[in-house]
Write a structure and sequence with these properties.
By secondary structure, this protein is mainly β. Helix content is about 5%, strand content about 45%. β1, α1 and β2 form a beta-alpha-beta unit.
């Protein structure tokens, strides 16, 4: 079983300042997995804190095969009991991701964490300059995960692809 929890925080371009950043601080933290735990080859726990809903948490739980990971922009590949997780190209305007990116390979029982942020257009039309922003923290467990698994302990693999979305030279990348 693969358990994936994606926690997203979404806000509009008008909420980019420090005052608004304080309102969303800490919302990208993992949360308890649903109880009782769902069953399936892949379990996806998708959590969204959207400015449009006053940052109240909205959760969806999906179960099924490996195609469930694609709904989050992830690709899973298995080799024996290990699973490799890749980030698929997305529709983010920044940072541009034109190719798949290998994030990590997890042995049985290991957990990986992927952190990223994005600037996205409300529409696919270049004529509409409306943007929104998302900050993601994605945990992937290769094996059953207790309800608090992503809340406690360190991840075995961490990939940090967060960048400065507002321009400037600052960019932060950390992989281990």
């Amino acid at each position: 079983m693969i358990v994936i929890q994606r926690v997203r925080v979404r806000w509009s371009a008008s909420s980019r300042g420090a005052h608004h950043a304080n309102a969303r601080r800490g919302l990208d933290r993992p949360v308890m997995l649903p109880a009782p735990p769902p069953t399936g080859d892949v379990v996806v726990h998708d959590v969204l804190a959207d400015e449009a809903d006053n940052y109240s948490l909205r959760t969806d739980v999906l179960t099924g095969g490996v195609s469930m990971a694609r709904s989050l922009g992830l690709w899973l590949a298995f080799e024996g009991s290990a699973v490799t997780v890749e980030r698929l190209p997305g529709r983010a305007a920044f940072p541009r991701a034109g190719v798949s990116t290998r994030l990590f390979t997890l042995a049985d029982g290991q957990v990986g964490r992927y952190e990223s942020n994005f600037r996205l257009r409300f529409t696919d039309c270049a004529c509409d300059p409306s943007w929104y922003y998302e900050d993601w923290v994605v945990h992937v467990s290769n094996g059953d995960a207790a309800g608090d698994r992503f809340l406690r302990g360190e991840a075995d693999r961490v990939v940090d692809h967060r960048v400065h979305l507002y321009g400037g030279r600052f960019a932060r990348r950390r992989n281990r």
